[in-house]
Amino acid sequence: LIPIVVAALGVVVWWLVGRTLRPVEQMRQEVAEISLERLDRRVPDPETDDEIDRLASTMNEMLDRLEVSNDRLQRFVADASHEQRSPLTRIRATLEVDLAAADTDLDETCRGVLTETIAIQRLVDDLLFLARQQDPHALPRRRPVDLDVVVDAEVERLRDETGAAVDMTAVTAGLVSGDPAQLARLVRNLLDNAARHARDLVSVSLGQTDDVVTLTVDDDGPGVAPEDRVRVFDRVTRLDESRSTATGGTGLGLAIVRDIAGAHGGTVRCESAPSGGARFEVQLSALE
């Protein structure tokens, strides 16, 4: 009887284990067939409310995140490729027209090609910065930074390069902890964005309340519609014809501002300025 009982018990155990692991094998087969081109597929959910059911739910959630990340990456690559193709196309067209013309103004051609080359350089620099920001180990170097000193330097640079009128009467001291180079880039991008869209004046304010340092940059331009105040921080986003590469923008500046603020534990938001233009407000933790 003992051999018969052992054999029967073995058969029962084999059947139970096979039945228990069958959903796992189905999930394995499904995962083996999933590729970057088929991230819309999901593993079967046994709906047994046990560990295997929770495993299937976790794997499907992971696939959801991978699909969203892949879609964002593909859109970003497509947009970046388009942004690089546009100035290169203009450079080629300029050179071809001038070569075919009998009386070519070489100075004007060189100035036009130089302008487009600078635009490409800015775009590549922005793309490289955003790529480095995707590295979870690339955290900003922390050290005390006088944000008012950074604002002063960037405003002087903007005045020298563009001659823009900038009001700094509301700038006071603000001490934060962060990477000086990245914070300077944050301020530079906000000022450049405001100068491109301002009609007459850019206003900058900086102050500290309790444990928060607030930087505000206003312009008196057309402003940003309420429905676009979140989308304006997306990569390669331009809301109208005035926000184009012709005015020097790459469509990545505000995305970089958002990433730098987030890396420093801060926030950035877009509102309406008292002048009717756009207001960009950055809040960072004050250094005690």
What tags apply to this protein structure?
288 residues, alpha+beta, five-stranded mixed β-sheet, 6 helices, elongated
**Shape assignment:** elongated
Task: Tally the beta strands.
Answer: 7
Instruction: Report the radius of gyration as a whole number of Å.
Output: 28 Å
What structural category do the secondary elements indicate? alpha+beta
Question: What share of residues are in beta strands?
Answer: 15-25%
Overall mean confidence score, pLDDT:
83
Helix proportion range: 40-55%
Low-confidence runs: 241-248
Largest sheet: 5 strands, mixed
- Count every helix, treating DSSP H or I runs of 4 or more residues as helices: 6
List the secondary-structure elements in sequence, H or E. Answer: HHHEHEEHEEHEE
Distance between the first and last residues' Cα = 81 Å
Query: Going across the major beta sheet, what is the strand order?
Result: 2-4-5-7-6
